[in-house]
Amino acid sequence: MESSQDEMSFLDHLEALRWHLIRAIIAVLAVGVVAFVCKDFIFQIIFAPKNGDFFTYRMFCKIGHLFGFKSTFCAEQLPFTIQSRTMAGQFSAHIWTSIWAGVILAFPYVLYEVWKFISPALYENERKLARGFILIASLLFFIGVLFGYYLITPLSVNFLGSYSVSPEVRNQIDLNSYISVVRSSVISCGIIFELPIVVYFLTKLGVITPAFMRKYRRHAVIVVLIIAAIITPPDVVSQIIVSIPIMLLYEISIFISAYVLKKEQNKVI
After folding, report:
1. Is residue 222 in a domain?
2. What is the value of pTM for the model shown?
3. Beta-carbon contacts of residue 95 (< 8 Å; ≥ 6 apart)
4. For residue 186, which of 48, 24, 27, 61 has the smallest C-alpha distance?
5. What is the pLDDT of residue 70?
6. 17-31, 55-69, 79-93, 175-189, range with the lowest pLDDT
7. What residue intervals traverse the membrane (predicted)?
8. For residue 2, is it within any domain?
9. How far is residue 211's CA from residue 195's CA, in Å, rounded to a whole number?
């Protein structure tokens, strides 16, 4: 560790943290401004799962035809409309969508600022992992974002937008409600896909071991099903589709934990 960092006072650390946070916020706002200007492009992407010809719907429709059963994903248009019911509804949605776009797209830089703050407290060989850590964590996050956008969001929009308790009740979805479904699906999946990174650091800290993860694999399956039930519509097929990649991440995390533990044991020897 660097001696200069050891001599920093608590207030010095707070000052350093403040500037890291400021730079991260500036990056988010800068990307948010770009997203705000590119309104048409952003909202075409966000609104895409509403359209019957969205990629995921076409894919599930073809799968349904392949197995010879009628699929609800084959509709040309989903049976609901999106509306704004407040005076500032569209403007507010525009601003907040731009900010969240900034959070998602600036994630690698935010992660870099976080790493820059904690890295002085690490040893030299641990700091060398910075580039790999930021790259892998960002890659996993964006894979999760794409997974949420192209799978979780369409499943949720199709189920909730098509659900009806009576033919007398028409689905007229509020703009902010629709965007909330898209946002929560995308960001929650991005965070969930960081599981291997979390396991890596917990193993290095000695909190968990591969033996522990194998022992509680059945419990993990239950937790995964609960998570899938939270972020997907309440139907079994959607939950199974979402659970499979999360369980794959769990199994990959076991190998990562075993690799880290082996390296730590070799250091001791």
Report:
1. yes
2. 0.83
3. 36
4. 48
5. 72
6. 55-69
7. 21-47, 93-112, 133-152, 185-203, 215-234, 240-261
8. no
9. 17
Q: Sorting pLDDT into bands at 50, 70 and 90, what band is 1?
A: very low
CA-to-CA distance for 226 and 186, rounded, in angstroms? 18
What is residue 129's predicted lDDT score, i.e. its pLDDT?
60
Cα 167 to Cα 259: distance, rounded to the nearest angstrom:
57
Number of domains making up the chain:
1
In the chain, the DSSP E strands lie at 80-83, 171-174
3-class state of residue 77 by DSSP: strand
Classify residue 96: in a domain, yes or no. Answer: yes
Cα–Cα distances (Å) from 205 to 97, 123, 138, 201, 260, in that order, read: 37, 14, 22, 6, 10
- Range(s) of the domain holding residue 250: 10-74+81-268
* For residue 29, pLDDT beyond 90: yes
Secondary structure of residue 51 in the 3-state scheme: strand
Mean pLDDT to the nearest integer, 76-93: 86
Rounded Cα distance, 76 and 182, in Å:
20
How much is the pLDDT for 202? 84
> Quick check: 149 and 186 in contact, CB under 8 A?
yes
Other residues' Cβ atoms within 10 Å of the Cβ of residue 182: 23
As a whole number of angstroms, the distance between CA 93 and CA 178 comes to 10
Question: Could you give the CA distance from residue 185 to residue 5 in angstroms, rounded to a whole number?
Answer: 40
Tokens 């407040």 found at: 86
Confirm whether 95 is domain-assigned. Answer: yes
Please give the structure tokens belonging to residue 257: 């934990």
Residues forming beta bridges with residue 172, ordered by sequence position: 81
| Calpha distance 59→171 (Å, rounded) | 25
